[in-house]
Specification:
Elements (H helix, E strand, L loop, with lengths): L25 E6 L10 E2 L5 E4 L3 E4 L5 H12 L8 E7 L4 E6 L5 E4 L6 H7 L10 E7 L11 E2 L5 E7 H5 L15 E4 L4 E6 L5 E4 L5 E3 H7 L12 E5 L9 E5 L1 H5 L7 E3 L3 E4 L12 H8 L8
Parallel strand pairs: 6-11, 12-18
Antiparallel strand pairs: 1-2, 1-5, 3-4, 6-7, 8-10, 8-11, 9-10, 12-13, 14-17, 15-16, 15-18
Length: about 300
């Protein structure tokens, strides 16, 4: 088996308008005054190489057509002076990106020319109502590190990842986050975390945080359509599970009446918090425990906004 030779030219970052070849693409080559190299379409193999007469295996994956032409010109100077080479892209199969999670059309999408992050999310049908607050990007190391300040390379240096805010991205708060997407990138938009409202409210259930990291108590209560008339508004509790699921549930007493009247500040609620509003007729001795309330919370209906 022939040993693959290293490219003879430096891999400079291609211009935005230039297509980068990859595994699965088909190209046709024509060399003036050299019939040994057929002009029939050649497919780039899974390792990014093409096999050519006279010169053997040549790495094409990761190069632009112009870079490949220069690579071949250097190799063919052994056989003819000033080789004139034309290369055409017959079929492109390598430029695809995966969009997964809470989008309307998840899956693998072809990149027809340069596309930025928001464009690719739009190609996947846009975000669903149950989308969370984060966009997670993953890029193979062969395309370089993600050009984002928060990008991190994994310990094996195989890929880099970065997490962005959906709200910031969609509102163009920081336009530099709307980066160009490379072939093989993975865009993941996880489902939203949920806050639960149980007890004496008009619509008990779970309510997604959507693009936020938190909601205030009054915002959450409005999604539950407010208190029932029998609610003990002064004896409500926020149940906050421990980080990682280990440890004791934290119980935070809240007086909803005082918050509604402006006598106390509104309180932020976070992912997996449970706002429990007891019935004013329920005696303390039979009131449900925090553990029982949390068990109920995991089985309630989650409402999509």
């Amino acid at each position: 088996m022939a040993v693959a030779q290293k490219p003879l030219i430096a891999r400079q970052p291609p211009a935005v308008s230039e297509y980068i070849l990859g595994a699965g693409d088909q190209v046709s080559l024509h060399v003036v005054d050299l019939d040994d190299i057929s002009d029939k379409p050649i497919r780039i193999d899974p390792n990014g190489f093409v096999d050519l007469a006279l010169i053997g295996r040549v790495e094409a994956g990761g190069l632009t057509i112009e870079q490949l032409r220069e690579q071949l010109r250097i190799k063919l100077t052994k056989y003819i002076n000033s080789p004139q080479i034309s290369i055409n892209l017959v079929e492109n199969q390598s430029r695809s990106v995966s969009v997964i999670g809470s989008v309307n059309t998840p899956g693998v999408h072809a990149l027809e020319g340069p596309r930025r992050l928001i464009e690719v999310i739009s190609m996947a049908g846009g975000v669903r109502p149950d989308a969370g607050s984060r966009v997670i990007l993953t890029r193979q190391a062969r395309w370089g590190e993600l050009p984002l300040a928060q990008a991190k390379m994994d310990p094996s240096s195989t890929y880099s990842t970065a997490t962005l805010s959906v709200e910031s991205l969609m509102s163009a708060t920081n336009p530099s986050e709307n980066i160009l997407i490379d072939p093989g990138d993975v865009i993941s938009i996880p489902k939203a975390d949920v806050i639960y409202v149980l007890g004496t409210v008009r619509k008990a259930g779970g309510f997604p945080l959507a693009s936020k990291d938190s909601m205030t108590l009054l915002e959450t209560l409005s999604l539950a359509e407010g208190l029932d008339r029998n609610a003990a508004a002064g004896k409500a509790r926020i149940l906050r599970p421990p980080p990682g699921g280990e440890g004791k549930v934290r119980e935070i007493p809240v007086n909803i009446t005082n918050i509604e009247n402006g006598r106390e500040p509104d309180i932020p609620l976070y992912a997996n918090d449970v706002l429990f509003v007891p019935n004013s007729y329920v005696k303390a001795g039979v009131e449900r425990t925090a553990e029982a309330i949390l068990q109920v919370a995991t089985g309630v209906i989650v409402y999509r906004r």
